[in-house]
Records
---
Amino acid sequence: MTARLLAIFVLLTCVPATAQSTGGAEPSAEPVVTMSPHPDNWRVWISAQANVIFQAHPDFPALYSGPNSLLAGGESKISEVFTLYTGLEATRTTEIVFDLESAGGRGISDALGLAGFTNLDVVRNPELGRSPYVARAYIRQIIPLSKQKTKIQRGIFNVFPELPAKRLEIRFGKFGMADFFDLNSAGTDSHLQFMNWTVDNNGGYDYAANTRGYTFGAMAELVMPAWSLRFCEALMPTEANGINLDFHLPRARAENIEFELRKSLLAKRNGAIRLLSYVNHADMGVYRQANQAFLAGIDPVPDITAHRQQGNVKYGFGINAEQELTGLIRVFGRFGWNEGQHESFAYTEVNQTFLLGGDLKGGPWRRKLDKVGFAVVTNGISKDHQLCLKLGGSGFLLGDGNLNYGRENIVEGYYNAHIWRGIFIGFDLQHVNNPGYNRDRGPVLVPAVRLHVDL
């Protein structure tokens, strides 16, 4: 299948960029951005996406490597994600969502050696294979709080063409926390925007999820015209980066709360700020205990897994802001922090992150659906986390066998080109300094090419 997709990719790059399907009719005012129509009067939503990313890196300098290092020798990998999205407007206030997904291929170095990994589509356990699985299966209930209606864009997470301007939304079932928390219109979608884990998401947000990025949860969201408040109780994995979720709530769970204020700093421009907090309860280890056991001669290397205790608590905070400067330019940023004493468990090995970025629409060069983006992110870890890696310990992503600590600094830029209907080609380049927080390794340059097809 990969070979066929790559052949299609090569053919698509030869399609004129201005081509539009008109079906023999006059060209429409708005370009078509899906392969199939999705009429507003349908009570069902059926669509699909195919996302293929080719990514590589050349040889880079490394004084040493460990079991969880980014490979110093040049390599290339292809990842594939295929998703079927379905939704049903069961009643005027009830929606049912059911999505199937297949994630195949691999990331460079099997997604090891970087806290800010370069491809968000990669499943962190490639041994799971590409067999289809249920990504989302949940019920969404709308409780109106006003008679006034507001138009809503229909899509993969919303079947309704309009909703009450004031409402309470309840969701229950399987979904991704990143579907609803820490969203940012300029930096969330790895299929059309940035690709790095810590650019599309808050690296300090160790959000509840299995290794494929999904969990079971119950979520309530209060939506008002200018603000929203959402809360979710979700399941944690049974082990760090594990595929299985722990359904025993008294010992393992995650509380997540986010306040979103849709307020612009500039007149007639969109803007928003989101304040996030979370608390995870799980069978987590403590870095300091693992370090002390090694220094006392009890463990041959610092072993975080040998010092786990059910019910340990990890908490963190995040700030997420975006601002439209003109009709073509947006800027955005994130700050994230977690307490850093307990092991990174569900997302990535980051205890502190700062991000600044922006994007520009292609209107000035008559390519209004094209987009160019640029972002800079710097990630850090706690002193105890640093010492664990320096003494030869490993997390579920990092472990060079030693550590000369420096913040992991990443610069990413992309150009996303609209080819025809729902077909987009993206070109991405990332520069990573101190990969895995190690001054003794890198820097490394990671180019990528992305094919996105929206059916």
---
Amino acid sequence: MKLKLSKPIIENILSVVTNFTEKKDDSQITSHIYIEANENIIIKATDNEFGVIYIDNSSEVIQTGKTTINGKKFYEIIKALNDDIIEFEEENNIATISQNKSMYKLPTFDATSFPEFPDIKNFKKIDINSIEFIDGLKKTYLAIDNNNPKYELNGALIDVKENLNIVSTDTKRLAIYSIKNQTTDKASIIIPKKAISEIKKLFIDNFDLFINDTHLIIKSDNITFFTQLINGSFPNYERIIPTEYKHIVKINKSSFLKAIKQINIISFEVKLTFNQNKLHLESISDETFEAQTDIEIESEVTDFKFAVNSKFILDFLSVIDDEIIDMCLNEENIPFTLKSKNFQTIIMPLTI
């Protein structure tokens, strides 16, 4: 195999694919990336749980072939070289990377030993709005739990029914993003949080989504991504969503955000008191220090109060675009809901 690589392009590709390699044990073939050269250059990486295929159609293939090379070392070498053409050659299980007077040699593994990727032919395509799907993953991502013993909570549910709902929870809040369903198919899968983190980086729009019982594949023109799914039963989130509310309060996002940040200087536990057209915020967790402030709201609610971990409100405000949000209330001691268009977060209040 012999290639002429564009330094900026190959560096960008390696910055992506090395996230999918095994980094703790260089003896594993999953610490390597797979390179195959035909009409284009195909680069693969996987840690067996998830993986990526990247197609480079701008570099020059002088001699076809396939091999593997340690992803981390290859990336470090490419970053150290100048913005000029890089020559890559593999022969007798040795890869040579050279540019002008610089030259590196790295051992390679047998490319036929590289793990097989899922075959997309065995998958069912789910028709979705790509932009909305990525937006939904971004908005629900912060509510996904970390290292919960209930493994199914360490990911986001993709629930395809009348709507396609993207759902996540850390047991203290429930985030739901609804997309109008574009297919008659029904499906229910759980995508790991780690995989969602990579999906958000890799894709913006114009991709296809495929699923089977164990994997999800996302495919665009130059990138194909796969991940194993979480095997488990997500909680019945629909029974938690209130069907009606006693009060719906409209709040200016910027004013609310500023007020919460002011209270957070003293405490992340905040008491909210609603009086007609006014919301009073005050700190509650520290007896020595005190913070309080008021903002104007559109509401007829009087003497309604509860406390909350302000992080949950800040997470919601950080991912929405609307300047006016709805805070939906029933009773003081039961969960309340924050809404913005097709995204909502149901939050458990604190016990005062």
---
Amino acid sequence: MTISGRFVFPTKIISGTVTVRNGKIEKLSKGFIDNPDFDFRNQYILPGLIEVHGHLREPGFSNKEDIPHGTRAALAGGFTTIIDMPNTNPPTVTRQLLNQKINKIYKKRAYCDYSFFFGVSKNSLGELEKVAKNKVVGVKLFMAGHETTPTTIPDDKTLDKIFKVLNKRKMLVAIHAEDQNLINDLNEKFKATGRIDAKLWSEIRPKKVVVKAVKRALHLAKKYKNLRVYLLHLSTPEEFKIIADAKKKKMNIFGELVGYQLMFNINDYKKYGNKIKVAPALRTPKDQKAMWNLFRANKVDVVCSEHTPHEWETKNQKDMWKAQAGTPGIQETLPALITEFTKRFGKKNIEKCLMLLSNYCSQNPAEIFGFQQKGSIEVGKDADLVVLNLKDKWKVRKKDLFSKCGWSSYEGMELIGQPQATFLRGSLVYGQGRVVGFPQGEMLRLK
């Protein structure tokens, strides 16, 4: 099979043709051929995106999302691989629960490829010594919690125990870094005011909550030479500065930026209310501008959607204290970022945006999490490809969404860059607004 188009790499764009055989890229040649099987010579083609932070909610929260709906939404958004998060019900903190996901929940139900984070709680520390390393990309821990995170590890003593084990096993730790004690103090203070407005969320989880937590985590981690640290959903330029300084000191550390932090800020609460209540909280327009500049300067490691769906009833309310934290977005994030980038930096720079996305959403995640067959358009790699429609605008409407939750903070926006076609290991699995065929997703095991 042959596919022609404008293939996007982190540092270049090549007009050419790929030949696919047995799901792999067999050949990449410059220039177009006559009568390819798929002719996208006027479109840009990215490597399949990797959603490193996917909350697909099974088991326990299938009213919010499930594997078939969430993975179909992934394909429609250009994501061909998802890393599943462990804060389900019950949380995935034992080998038995992990195997249940692998053997029953995901098997033959996923439309894209997938892998898993393992969870940890104070009562399950012994599981970290025994979980099979090839079944998980790493261990996720919460330094602070919210409505769907009962496994919080707020104290340094337990954090250090976890870091010690993962250092010995040479495993990655992914950290939700917020300071629980600060949050508790601020919650008590603001509950006394009687306020329930959505903007309050960013006031009870301000910058100091995340900055303090990141500093605490890195202070503990710096003595462990084999520990790889992945900081989830950073929300401030200060956190990225801390990471940059740690990298200079040769720490093995990575920082993640989420699409909604680039698309929404605290001024948007007035319009969107609790639909954009997310954790960590949204920041100021000034902070948002600084993070866009980091994005443009290639100073971010990974960009993802952090797809976090909730049923509409838990979000469509005025009381901030009752609304759950998180917003869906795996289908909308790619075109939303392309659209906003061109608004901020001009359409003439759109190819720069696409090359950055190829790096942030494909190549870097594949390298960080050990997906050797994914992440780039190269001979021998899986033929995971996403074809972009940069000509036509897509108005986000509920009826076009695949997520089971059925709503979007992006609803009503007019976006460019909607995926026109998505290929998974050489098979067309999404095209012209429809998912094609049966679930073909496979579990990615690390070597």
